Amino acid sequence: MIIRNSSGFMVSFQYLFSLLLLLNISCERSSTHFLDNELSDIMGMQYPMVVNSSPKGRFVLLKKRCSNSFKLFVLNTNSSKYEEIDNSRFSQLSLTWHPNEKEIFFQKLNPEIKKYELFKIDIATNKKKKLDLPPSKNAIPPLKWSTQGERLAYLADNNLYVVDYESLNIELIIPNINDYSVFEWQSASVLYYVENPINPLIKRINVTTKQESTFNLPNINEVKGFSINGTKIIFSGRKQPDQYFQGYELNMKDGDVTKLVCSEYNISNVGYFKMDDSSYYYNRNENGILKLTCSDSRINVFFKNLSASYQHIEIDNDLGRCIFLKVGSFSYPNGILKINLENLMIEKKFFPSKEDQLSLTKPEFVEIPNNYSKLKAPGYFWKSNTKKDVKKTIIYVHGGPYLQSTPMWKDRHKILTEYGFNVLVLNYHGSSGYSKTYSETNDIWVQTLDIIGTIKWLKKSYDINENDIILMGSSYGGRIVLNTANYMENLAGIVLISGVVDLYDISNDTSYLEEIKIYGFYGDLDSLSLNAELFFNKLTPSNSEHFVLFNDEGHQFHMTSTWLFIYKYLIEKY
């Protein structure tokens, strides 16, 4: 086992002597140092990345992932200068502006309790304060302020908390709320929420009077998101489990539900523009590309033309006369555009990263047949951008399973293709973003067939042999790739990134893995690391040393030093 601490020093209890030799071989040390610098340069050029714009558009929040910390910066949209406001050991998550534009609230991991605590930071003084409020088990649900910032609503441990801004006291606790539930403020005291997306009743509560109302959604099976405009609620929902989400509008006066949008793909979110009350919606097509559509034809044509340059367009902030769009592409990291809705002109661009040096080619969109299912598994294939010495092909299998990989720019794809790897990212059965039938077909055997089908597709399409293929599984994806190895004889390797290892894998025969190079990367704050260590200790001596444990990392790796180590490890080992 190798333990890597926060300073980057690596300790091998079983092979300490070999490590000392390695550190004293000057030529190898020199080449290693050169690779460290190259990788560090590539990762560093994408920062600082844009997070979001402030409520009145005066500032843009930026974030930089450093070697062993995370820095926040505030950019003044008038001067385009930015200043550091925070430097934290653990990543600042759910970053949310207060409507006064003076404070930013966020969640941060407390490693001792393994939960996420709430903080606020004053951007003028850089003073940070931990709030005496219940921590959450994850930082996925958003923090949401009422219209003028009088109250905060957030989810923690299946409770929806309403907190007074001035006193920071809890005013209301709404119990039994699903982690994936949605909630929105209409005013300083009126909050709308859905207890459970698959039991779609939209509820309204007045925080002051505690008066409640419930709005039924006839024939709606599931709700994904909603937005309020006076007496109307526009929402993303579907009537049947196997249908895509569509756009609907609820009239709260008479309870009528009208279908506003009929799309051949999932509608992920909906809303209204402040300027003219026109509606907009997002849908992510089968290629995972987010498309923004507006009911105002004039604005919609502008979005369509804009999508030629930016494939991902998302409304970050609506100021009425102008909006801020968060945009991304296949080729470069995200940025923010300020758009004047009256003349439909781009007023300003905010791209702090060195995009000209981070270019990545558009992936090939693929569909993998599955012998069990009629539905094909979608994916994206990036070819190595080196003209010679293509090392291996990595099939990346995300976690979840209810998650979705997209074809947008990522440092993982950029670095691996830069150093000679082909990369195929697969959205196996059980992934989100597609029909409910697809997302609920999450049987491990069907998912294994997706990976086997991908290996066959690579052979048929590019003559890539099994012994040149590495399976990389993140979280739940680790379970899939280990199961796939049962049916493959000549895989080049398996890489587990916080990969799930079942008790079955630990207690049963693992001889089928003896000829495969297996590497596992885990955080010491992740409960999954215990099973993973038992699993690696059971493997052959050569593989048991391939278990790497990172100090102060959880299930999701955040630190640049962690990812630099992983990428360097893969480049050198394969």
UniProtKB/TrEMBL annotation:
InterPro entries: 6-blade_b-propeller_TolB-like (IPR011042), AB_hydrolase_fold (IPR029058), Peptidase_S9_cat (IPR001375). GO terms for biological process: proteolysis. Residues 413-513 form the Peptidase S9 prolyl oligopeptidase catalytic domain. Coiled coil: none annotated. One of its GO terms (molecular function) is serine-type endopeptidase activity. Keywords: Aminopeptidase, Hydrolase, Protease. PANTHER family: DIPEPTIDYL PEPTIDASE FAMILY MEMBER 6 (PTHR42776:SF27), SERINE PEPTIDASE S9 FAMILY MEMBER (PTHR42776). This is Dipeptidyl aminopeptidase/acylaminoacyl peptidase.
